[in-house]
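PRELI/MSF1 domain-containing protein (Photinus pyralis), 212 aa
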Amino acid sequence: MPRYFEATTVFNFTWDQVARGFWQKYPNPNSKHVLTEDTVIREVRSGKLFSKRLIRKTNPSPKWAERFVTTKNVNIVEESIVDPINKTLVTYTRNLGYLKVMSVTEKVIYKESDEHPGKTVAIRSAWIDSQIKGFGRAICAFGYERFKKNCNKMVGGFNYVLANMFPPHTITSTAHNVVTTKSKLKDAAKSASELAKARAAPIYASLHPNQS
C-alpha cells in the first residue's frame, strides 16, 4: 500500500532569496550523497522558467534490500517551474531506477508566507510505493521513514546554503544604513530650516519696522 508524506517548512528568507538559493543547494554539508548534478533543459515559456535537472545520488540500502537492489547509486529527475510574477517555485522529483522496488514522487511548493511576512513557506508532498509482492508494505514503511529523516537533512542543508548566501549581518547593515540615512536627512532638513529662518529675519524686520 502506498504511503503519503506531507510536511511544511518555513525558511527565514524572502522568496526571492530562496528562489536564487535553490539553484545552489549543492554542495552543502548534508549533501555528500549527491554525486553529480546536470541541467538537461532550461527555457522560458509564458514568463515562467521551466527546468529539468538530472541528479545522481548514492543511496546505501539495508541488508535485507540487497536481494532487490544491485547498486548503491540512483538517478533522480527534478523538474521545476519558477513563476516570478506570482512568486512561486514548484518542483517535481522522482527516481528513475528501481521503480518496481520503490518509487518516490515528490512535489514541493515554495511561496511567500502569509503568516510570516518576509519569509518563505515550503509545502512538501511525497508518494512512496512498491510493486514487490509480499514485501510492498514493509518497503513502503521503510521508504517513508527514510524519506522523513532525509527531509530534515535537506532542510538543514538548504538553510546552510541560504545563510551563507544571505548572512544576517547584511540585513543588519542595511537596516543601519537606512536609519543613518534617515537621521542625516532629518539633520539636513533641520539645518536648512534654521538657515532659511536666519536669512528671512532681516527681510521681515525691514518690511515691518514698527514691530518689535
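The first helix runs from residue 15 to 21. The beta strands are 3-11, 34-45, 48-58, 73-83, 88-95, 103-112, 120-129. ok done for today
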